[in-house]
Amino acid sequence: MGFIFAFFLSFKFIYGQSSSSKTDNEYQTFLYRLVDINQHSQFYLSMLNQNRDSLNLSSNNNLLQALKDLQQSRALAIESYFIYLRSELAKTTKILEYQDNLAYVYLDNYQTEARKFSEEIYGLTDWKEIKQRSLRYEENYLSGRKLAYRAIGLINYKKFMDFLSFLLTLIEEESIPDEENLVSQINLIKKDVQAQQRTFLASVDKNSDSQGVLRNHNQFLSQKKEEVALLLKKTINNLN
Amino acid sequence: MKKIQKFLMVTSPIFFLLILVLAYYLTGTNQTKLSIQSKANVLPTPFVFFEKTNEDNIFNSQTANLKAKLADLSTDLEKINFQDESVFPPDLDFQFQIPE
Questions:
Q1: Residue spans per domain, chain A
Q2: What is the ipTM for the molecules in this complex?
């Protein structure tokens, strides 16, 4: 029994370690690819400057190759980014809700789209085709970006709610003296955060400024975080 | 006669081991038990004020434990950064700057 328990523990430990390092790796890959894109862009621009006088694009294989590499790098960076967001969401989601399922599906879709684009672009030989395909993908990515803002908001909300639930369980288990009405105040904060989350989800992908909506949402969460931190501090002081 | 000798040769190591195991249980363990019991009998019964101090200690350690847990939670909360914009999606422009 001891052996089985030890085996289970070691498996859990190794699995936990590998999943978090996998997420870090995805993010590192994404950052690495962004650096790669910058280098490609510089190469692409220098090629363009060299050929400015005789811009015969269809016959310039080097320029065509530079273009394809650039677009492919961008798509691969985006793919890594969606994989990273998906794994971050998986880390915070303890109970799957409808919104989480929806986010998973969308993130998967945009990740697949990016992979498809990076593969397709490599097979194209005409720069006009590359341009058309790239423009189509850019439109697709703009919707994907809205989804990414939505997913970040969801991840932050989940992190905070998990923390509040854990805190409430601890108060209940350890029967902490409730001089500051800690339980009722935390429950009130929870309700406020839930109401804000509903507003955020309803507006983030419909609003033209999704980034602004996410910023407001994050600011609200930070404000509520400060309120909880203050409550915790008061409770610790009361225990003295 | 030879059969008896052979039988003794085969079984004697087993008997030897059995005797060793029996000796260990009969001497070592019992002696330890006896020594613990005798020491326990010799120990004085604690005074009343000792018990009260122990209760106080338990209460204090529980409070300290609780404070440590809450302090850990505060640190965890501080680590959550909702306004980290480094995880925002990259602003990659796919449009070409090449003339038609």
A1: 20-49+59-239
A2: 0.73
